[in-house]
């Protein structure tokens, strides 16, 4: 069964198709109901659109109402910030043709805040404290030295490891899968390099102890640094485009879509996210540990999306109703 959920503009396009085909509004409505069920437009709405078509009004998008605030997509705002994160609220509002308060509300929605540093400021995901800046600088400088000395990133064969709920269990399952599918790993000739952030599940004592038994190399990662986490700046950023305007009605639908999306990516896609790390470390060092100006706001879209998926799962089957076997 298809999980495609049509939006209203898509359905209006179908109505226009049947109008051109000389179908009546009633016939078009009947076909929509047969095909899309509860997602179909109402009979009254279909008749209203047929009247518009007869009056040579073929604009399928909603017209702006007089006095109503202009709407814009978050991706428009994110694109502007990607191009120039130093733009001010008045400048962003002028480009998007909305009030400054509207821009500020959406900036909070994508978890972007402003940091002012003479002679200019730019939008960033966190307000870094001096110790955070120092850690970012020190960690990136250390990783750059390690990369220049060993070139360890170029040697990775399967570098992407994802974190989530039941993190230690996931690591156990991953290690077992590597032993089954990678003989060199089982013989300890291949080494796993793990890069994860400092979320509580990742730094819990049982996880640290288990990682020591695996003898994996765990790279240091400073707090508040999504700009040097490939899952944020590369994986989630790309996935966000596919998730735009998509609705899921169950956890299973969301899981199926994510599995399919990941399967559609070849190894080169994941390698790109890893191999750009030295360049990003250099930018952090060049910025003295501060956020660098490019690509600092966008990664937070998917954090919200995955939170939605998790909440959907809890609503559908309860937070502890679905167990994972070892």
From TrEMBL:
Organism name:
Pseudoatta argentina
Chain ranges of the Mos1 transposase HTH domain:
8-57
Q: Please, one GO biological process term?
A: replication fork processing
Protein name according to UniProt = MOS1T transposase
Recorded GO CC terms: condensed chromosome; nucleus; site of double-strand break
What would be an example GO MF term here? histone H3K4 methyltransferase activity
Which InterPro entries does this one have?
Answer: Mos1_HTH, RNaseH_sf, Transposase-MT_Hybrid, WH-like_DNA-bd_sf
PANTHER family named among the record's database cross-references: MARINER MOS1 TRANSPOSASE-LIKE PROTEIN
């Amino acid at each position: 069964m298809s999980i495609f959920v049509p939006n209203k503009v898509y359905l209006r396009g179908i109505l226009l198709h049947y109008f051109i085909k000389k179908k009546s509004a009633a016939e078009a409505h009947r076909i929509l109901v047969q095909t899309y069920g509860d997602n179909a437009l109402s009979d009254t709405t279909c008749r209203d659109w047929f009247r518009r078509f007869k009056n040579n009004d073929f604009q399928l998008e909603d017209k702006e109402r007089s006095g109503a605030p202009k709407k814009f997509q978050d991706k428009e705002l994110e694109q502007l910030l990607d191009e120039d994160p130093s733009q001010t609220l008045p400048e962003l509002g002028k480009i998007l043709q909305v009030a400054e308060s509207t821009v500020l509300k959406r900036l909070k929605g994508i978890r972007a805040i402003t940091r002012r540093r003479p002679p200019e400021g730019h939008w960033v995901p966190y307000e870094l404290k001096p110790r955070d800046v120092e850690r970012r600088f020190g960690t990136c400088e250390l990783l750059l030295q390690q990369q220049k000395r060993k070139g360890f990133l170029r040697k990775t064969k399967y570098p992407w490891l994802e974190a989530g709920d039941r993190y230690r269990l996931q690591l156990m399952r991953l290690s077992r899968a590597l032993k089954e599918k990678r003989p060199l790993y089982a013989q300890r000739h291949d080494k796993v390099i793990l890069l994860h952030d400092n979320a509580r599940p990742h730094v819990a004592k049982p996880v640290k102890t288990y990682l020591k038994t695996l003898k994996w190399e765990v790279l240091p990662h400073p707090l508040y640094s999504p700009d040097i986490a490939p899952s944020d700046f590369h994986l989630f950023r790309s996935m966000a485009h596919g998730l735009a305007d998509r609705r899921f009605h169950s956890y299973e639908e969301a899981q199926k879509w994510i599995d399919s999306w990941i399967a559609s990516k070849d190894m080169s896609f994941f390698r790109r996210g890893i191999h750009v790390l030295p360049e990003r470390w250099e930018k952090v060092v060049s910025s003295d540990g501060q956020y660098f100006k490019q690509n600092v706001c966008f990664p937070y879209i998917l954090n919200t999306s995955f939170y939605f998926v998790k909440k959907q799962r809890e609503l559908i089957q309860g937070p502890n109703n679905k167990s994972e076997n070892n």
